[in-house]
Amino acid sequence: MFIQSSLSDKSTFFQKLRSLDYIMLFTILIIGIISSFAMYSTDGGELRYHSESHIIRFVVFFTMMIFISFINIKTWHTLGYLFYIIVLGLLVWASLFGITAQGSQRWIDLYFINLQPSELMKIAIIICFAKYYHRIQVANVNRVRNIIIPILILIIPISLVISQPDLGTSILIALSGIIVLWLAGVNIKYFFYSSLVFIISAPFVISFLKPYQKLRILTFFDPDKDPLGAGYQIIQSKIAVGSGGLTGKGFLKGTQGYLEFLPEKHTDFIFTLFSEEFGFVGSILLLILYAILIFRILRIGSLSRNFFGKFFCFGFGSAIFVYIAVNMSMVLGLLPIVGSPLPIMSYGGSSMLATMIGLGIVMSTKIYSRQLIS
Amino acid sequence: MIGSGEDSGFKKSNTINRRMFIFAAAKAVVFFGIVGRLFSLQISENKKYLTLSDKNRLREARLPPVRGEFVDYFGKRIAKNLTVYQLHVVPEQVEDFKTLIVRLKDILNLSNNHLQELIKKKNNQKPWETLIVSENLTWDEFSKINFYLHELSGARPVLTVGRNYPYNETYTHVLGYVSEASVEDLVTNETIKERNVPGLRVGKTGLEKALEKELIGTNGVQRFEVNAYGKRINQIDFKEGEQGKTIKLTIDTEIQKYTQELLNGRAGSISIMDIYTGEIIAMNSSPSFDPNLFLYGIEKDKWKQIKKDPLKPLLNKTVSGLYSPGSTIKPLVALSALENDVITTNLKVNCRGHKHPLELYGMKYHCWKKQGHGYMSLQNAIKQSCDTYFYEAARLLGVDRLYKTAKKFGLGNVVLGEYFNEKKGVVPSTKWKKEAIGQNWYLGETLINGIGQGYIQTTPLQLCLMTAQLANGGHKIYPKIIYDNNQETIETIKQKMKFAEENKLKDSNLLSATEKLFKKDEKTYDALYRNKENVKFVLDAMFRSTNEIYGTSFSSKIEDPKYQFAGKTGTAQVKRITEEERELDLKTNQIPYKERDHAWYVAFGPYKNPRYAVSILVEHGGSGSSTAAPIAKKLFKFVIDRHELREKEKKKNLATTDI
């Protein structure tokens, strides 16, 4: 044990470099390039504000990710709670002094970047839970104390994000946390009971939602009811995807996007735009790329010798899957419209930052897979 | 701790892996769910969404159809199209209507009245319907609008087609006029409804209305791409519409213009017809008005003025005005009496003037001539228009026999068919009176019928046709105002007339009826007489009426055989003359306008080889010989001078149709 850990500690930089997961890196790079082209298309085939800052962000954060890869996984384990508390502090900061945009107070001004702490919370909650369950033995997982503490850890940030209000992100934070709880072995009955409680309380919860959130959920069930209002996004998105056909309308030729029928085309609906221009073939290709990415993350998790890395990779990989699934189901009209970006593809610095931190930790898990954490 | 740690670590690892596996299975389901959804949207329902996407991005604009033009016999354009600059606004696409209107007011110097009318109009229509702010912008205004267009969101400068009648009022009663399509136009005419665009002009009267379907043309279609806000991005496709048919008329503009001059200031009508081809050379009704006034909606004052004019400019007197024919009917009465063998040309009647009028059942029937004509032969009776003679002739003939002849020669029926709002008029008969009035016929009515008074009502064009059919020797012709591409030479027509005459001798109604069935379109120029000599006699009498001393139109004669014509005057009473009035014997200008006689003149010429028939009416113009006949003198000179040109044109047309 000692030998192993010292081996890891003492591996040369060259060895570390060699043990990077190149398939994963390559996949991320391709998705990044695809996203840059898609962003270029949203700018109407010109290198303008969105595409430019997206590309810059990708390059910067991708580099940052590689740096993070070389940080020992132990460090992340040590800093796990601190990271969570800092992000929680930022969330409180945001709700007190944040910038309000589009009726939601979710950003804080850091002078060089407008940070959205709720995006970081998606990753912080996984790190926090990974650290929490790293030590706890299976037998103790279902103790009352070990149920209540994680629930508190989860509920505090969620309620902060809901009050911003930001339904989409709070759901994704909840799902990220619940995934780790599930992996840790929390008794199935708790999941069963809580979902029962959720379903029963849903009508009450809905009555507390903001009118626009209520409308979104109601419109989901019948988008044609209000085709020019709340249902507009779903209808136009389906038209864009459907009209793309097998091979798409071609790069920069997506009329729905180009003629501005698509709302929020560079953020939540980037997949719609991509799918319109590259069709079924392109969409499947992108899905496969994401599948490869997720498989690599899960594989790294399964090879990790420490539970922190394992929990994190499984948690993060699954969370990425959930983000993708929620975003795509949403734009394909399978789920109500709630704000949820598509990892790497969507425009948005905080989301990109969080994703890259997560991928960096995954990479670090790979490099330090033999690292044991006591 | 370590030992048990390893053990529990193993257990923990197992739990995680098991749970991960369950989760992965769920993920696979979701993954394929998404793939399935993509497949159904992009592959299965691709067509549906492609259509929806096209519907999103493509808009079609129908352009106004380009109306067909009218040309006269010589190909001169008499109704043409103009490029018109207009300003349209679709209120739905305007952010702030008030601001826009105020801005437009500044740019175009619109009056407050106009502004108020616009706002009223806007409130009465649907927000997506086009509002025409200005119907006829000058080029300066149009360029100004284009210059400021960036700050006039929602305003659309439009190039459209307007109508122009270069000869102003000359053709009004033939062509009619166009004006903006009304709701009624849209409801009654499918074609207009189909091709309607905002501001479309359609025919309101005359040929413009009657030939709407042929004239209107088809819409051009412009397809362009719009963005989500309805803003036009670029044009994708443009399909030009087809211009409506150009309609060629048989009318000669110069003669038409001249008839306008001849009637200037007076209410009346002139029509001229080719006695063989039936082509109408000119057809005028006076007074007229400028049809160009109606293009953008006529001003209220002007409309009032036209509507209230006592000379009735809105009435097309040539085809829709009904008048007693007066003495112009006498040649026909004479012909009918000869044809039916009730009189011979030798019959003499003594006309003894107002002191000894003809008396029948206590009613007195006066001749127009106070002193009386003395003993009259038929020839002299026509020449001098002796009423007493025709009372006698009509009495012998009877109303029903005259009815038959009059019908045959074209009275009591429309002449040109469906083109105009033509009146049939009345040719009375015993049966007609029973049906229309419910009374028996009185002999006295036969008498006044014989001098063209009483129930008989004709249009000027009917009398023109009657004269033409007499002048060509008594054959049926086919009147037309639209140029017929199946032209026949005069020689062919004359041959056909001869053939019809020979067939007449064999006379078998059955045979000709079956023949007609087989040759439906063939023009047969049937003989309308029994004995050709009778027609000749009547024509000769008409010649004497004009060219011999004591003839009623002798003062209007032309001696030059090139222009020499023959005619019959008519002076139609508009009311019964009382005994006192007869005693007073007032001059025309001493009688109130409304009570003055209508002056008639029907004629044909040149006499030696006749070709044209005319009918002239001057409403309340006094006597035919003093008012109407002098017009004919001028007219024949003018028409015959243009005869050569017309024949040349006809030859040219024949040559081209032969190829």
Characterization of the model:
The complex is a heterodimer of chains A (374) and B (659). With 374 residues, chain A is mainly alpha-helical. Helix content of chain A is 72%, strand content 3%. Chain A contains 16 helices and three strands. In chain A, helix 5 crosses helix 6, helix 6 runs antiparallel to helix 15 and helix 15 runs antiparallel to helix 16. Chain B folds into two domains: 183 residues, Penicillin-binding protein 2a (Domain 2) (Alpha-Beta Complex); 399 residues, 3-Layer(aba) Sandwich (Beta-lactamase). In chain B, the strands form six sheets. In chain B, strands 2, 3, 4, 5 and 10 form a five-stranded mixed sheet that branches. In chain B, strands 12-11-19-18-17 form a five-stranded antiparallel sheet. The longest helix of chain B has 43 residues. The relative contact order of chain B is 0.09. Chains A and B meet through helix 9, helix 12, helix 14 and helix 15 of A and helix 1 and helix 2 of B.
